């Protein structure tokens, strides 16, 4: 069954639309096509220019060499031109060039290939330039075949030694002396055109092969690169399908295999796996929260239900004092239940307004274009001293030997609701008093409160000499319903510190704790200062 499921999953992945893959390969192929076309065109242009230039150069060199041979063989008397010239510097059988000797009036005296010469059209401009004793070159076309043609004047210009002095096989000659004839030189571009056609075919075929191979390789590379994303899709789909089959969320312990390479895909997979881990942790915390909340709600409800059921059955049999006691217990548990529900409601509202403040707190300033009103400014030192005074009175009424001491207190103003600030400090102080033994072997238990200003923050510290917190439990003390083993011996729900952290976050501050088991704990709260007014004075009150 597992193999069948894996096969179906693989088939579904293959059937998925590969839009990103196709787009990447398309743009890669388009870029490669443009590159190949540009490169091939450049190669073809350079080759065409070089080959055409080679024909031009070769024809001119042969023409100058032929002119040199003709002027060597000129007769001293008319008609001067040799009737059967010997071109000993030129191999006419291996050089596909037409050479002809003509009189100035156009009569052909010699032609190496008469048939081609007869089909060669005469260019009047080149002919007239040659009659003016200037060589002329031009390109023409005969039956679709391109030809490069030159008309060179032949002059009677002998030196004393009997050799011409004005011609060269490499340099353009200058005609000196009387014009005695014309030399016609022509060479076809047919070989060049055939080579260029073959080169064009090779470039097209090679470009097509390279493009097809590159596209296939690009598809393989892109598929290999994007394969981890398919694993992400498969993992998300597996969780979704498992969720769709039941009422519970699918297995969030699934993880996408991490590729070995360190690139953007790896970062995406790391982020996806981290998101799954956070989601799994959040779901576990939610389930634990529901279980703990159910347990905490069940205890008072059980007491209330039991007492009321017992009273309903035996109310006439019980004495008034016992009935009153059971009703008091039910009422006490009802109050405990109400406090617990209030705490849960406060946390639920805090979760719902994590990105924005609660709608009840969003008082809009009239004419302020939707801006929220700032929370009121509260003198935190006054609230701290007032709360300490109240708790001292309570300790005195209970005849508790615990000492609630005041450390260094500075005047500090913060923004927030005074009632929430009181609740925050009350949670911290109740927590310290609850877990601090009234008497120890050395001295009575002590709780010390201090308030000072550090830069733009107010630092509130509540220190005690209580039982302390184990290092294993310290990172979890602000979680909802979390209670360490030592704390379970005392009454409580495990929501106090979670509410304290929620309140601190609403004020824009932060909270932390330090503890040494058996020696005590210190809770620190940092809150932003409301204003930078002059607060240089400090107050230090004795205990």
Describe this structure in words.
This protein has ten helices and 13 strands. With 543 residues, it is an alpha+beta fold. The strands form three sheets. Strands 11-12-10-9-7-13 form a six-stranded mixed β-sheet, covered by helices on one side. A five-stranded antiparallel β-sheet has the order 2-1-5-4-3, sandwiched between helices. The longest helix has 56 residues. The relative contact order is 0.06.
Structural class: alpha+beta
Number of strands: 13
Q: Can you summarize the main beta sheet? A: 6 strands, mixed
Q: Which residues sit in consecutive blocks of at least 5 with pLDDT less than 50?
A: 159-170, 358-368, 532-543
Portion of residues within helices = 40-55%
Radius of gyration: 52 Å
Measured by DSSP, the beta-strand proportion falls in: 15-25%
Keywords:
single chain; 543 residues; alpha+beta; six-stranded mixed sheet; rod-shaped
Summarize the structure.
With 543 residues, this protein is α+β, with helices and mostly antiparallel strands.
